[in-house]
Amino acid sequence: MVETGTASTRVDGGVRSIARAVEVLELFDVAHPIRQLRELVALTGLPKTTVVRLLATLESLGLIVDRGDSSYGPGPGFLRWVKLADSLWEVGAEARQIMSGLIDDCGETVNVYIRQGLNRIAIAQVEGTATVRSVVEVGVPYPLATGAAAKILLGGVSEEVLRDLVAQRSDLQLKPLRREVASIREAGYAVTHGERELGASAVAAPIVAADGRVIAALSMSGPTSRFTADRVGRYVDAVTAAAREISNAGLGPVEVFL
Amino acid sequence: MVETGTASTRVDGGVRSIARAVEVLELFDVAHPIRQLRELVALTGLPKTTVVRLLATLESLGLIVDRGDSSYGPGPGFLRWVKLADSLWEVGAEARQIMSGLIDDCGETVNVYIRQGLNRIAIAQVEGTATVRSVVEVGVPYPLATGAAAKILLGGVSEEVLRDLVAQRSDLQLKPLRREVASIREAGYAVTHGERELGASAVAAPIVAADGRVIAALSMSGPTSRFTADRVGRYVDAVTAAAREISNAGLGPVEVFL
């Protein structure tokens, strides 16, 4: 279960070439550290000349390495930011331990999501134990409109953000969204099935700062076939309890940004 | 001693907006994890409207976080590359230990540089012990034409790369450069003073693969005032010995790219 919204579709206006460059860079991951030029052309859907030009630009910036046989990898230029981002966006040991405890109890993938503009991004993840499991990528923007974690995060936003989100998406209406978000906020958790992706379910609860603000969402997700009526009560209990524990312990260094 | 060639001056043709975006991102480092908008405008020399547009684009891609008070930081979007870049560009424990030994002996900053196109990039660093010490940034492209590490790396390139480099820089001529590079290759080390930056000196030696190719340069650098005649012999001995040791031990996982 992998959802990959491409970077360029996430940009409203903005500088298209930057989005395209990020889109190319996003095609490299732990499973695909090296890509052939033809793969990059096929996966981006961009003309070959455009991809070649993007790769040359990224290579000159140290962000792509040309291996010389029409295959490419992420360049050493990333090193300067990964150390920085890793330390800035670090989720503390205590919070991670609570996440791991949740996996021990329920076996499904656990993520901490934060809001970034009109997106949500997982900043920490512990993967589930089953073969068929939820896999989202840490650091990749996903829609703020759909999924349990999104609904929890929306409980912490201003009316202005809700309006911007509705303006961006033709499938949303302000009044019902506002009502749903308020109800979820009152309930203290959200359960969604197939809202973001067919066959995927999730349970999420808010992580709050000392001043009561919703700063993140703790989410447990997996195949709908395992998020059954007889299990969901236990999942909701476990996720809300863990989110409360993390709220008390603090999220760690990353909190200065939230 | 920090040299910061800006990203956009390193792009020949290419997509300028990508280079500008990288230039903005490069302004964030461990010493400056947060930057004010006015700093970003001043440091890039770009119009404020351009910087604001770049920041908005980068924010929508998760690469910049807007802290809401006209201050910005690197976004959580970098997290997706952390595991990848770290594992791909990893210099092995044995090589790092040899680098640390060099610091114990001489006290000056040690870097491993690799060539990327017409640039060189430090992929590993151990900082020196003195207050005034050489600081280059890991992952940032520096010129391939100047400095001891550059001259060592040029000993491993094809005639074509030399020609491209000369074509790019009006201050270089092919014949003298070729002669210098061949001499340095024969000597097995390079010593430079103020070549890349006034007041900065360096000693470098080649790290070679099992097949004899120059894959990296081991460099020790610091203020010219400490790279004196009575010390340089010891420095050259120490750096060439350590480079030989690293060549025998191997650079670690990163070697597959070199």
Secondary structure layout:
Two copies of one chain form a homodimer.
Chain A: H1 16-26, E1 35-36, H2 37-44, H3 48-60, E2 64-66, E3 71-74, H4 79-88, H5 93-106, E4 109-116, E5 119-126, E6 141-143, H6 148-154, H7 159-168, H8 174-187, E7 190-193, E8 200-208, E9 214-223, H9 229-249
Antiparallel strand pairs in A: 1-3, 2-3, 4-5, 4-9, 5-6, 7-8, 8-9
Keywords:
2 domains, 6-stranded antiparallel sheet, Beta-Lactamase, 9 helices, 3-stranded antiparallel sheet, homodimer, alpha+beta, disordered N terminus, 20% strand, 258 residues, 9 strands, Arc Repressor Mutant, subunit A
Structure commentary:
The structure is a homodimer of 258-residue chains. The first copy, chain A, has 258 residues and is of the alpha+beta class. The first copy, chain A, has 2 domains: 7-77, Orthogonal Bundle (Arc Repressor Mutant, subunit A), CATH 1.10.10.10; 89-257, GAF domain (Beta-Lactamase, 2-Layer Sandwich). The first copy, chain A, has helices at residues 16-26, 37-44, 48-60, 79-88, 93-106, 148-154, 159-168, 174-187, 229-249, and strands at 35-36, 64-66, 71-74, 109-116, 119-126, 141-143, 190-193, 200-208, 214-223. In chain A, the strands form 2 sheets. Chain A has a 6-stranded antiparallel sheet with strand order 6-5-4-9-8-7, with helices on both faces. A 3-stranded antiparallel sheet of chain A has the order 1-3-2. In chain A, strand 8 and strand 9 form a beta hairpin. Chain A is globular and about 55 Å long. In chain A, 48% of the residues are buried. Chains A, B: Residues 15-76 form the HTH iclR-type domain. Chains A, B: Keywords: DNA-binding, Transcription, Transcription regulation.
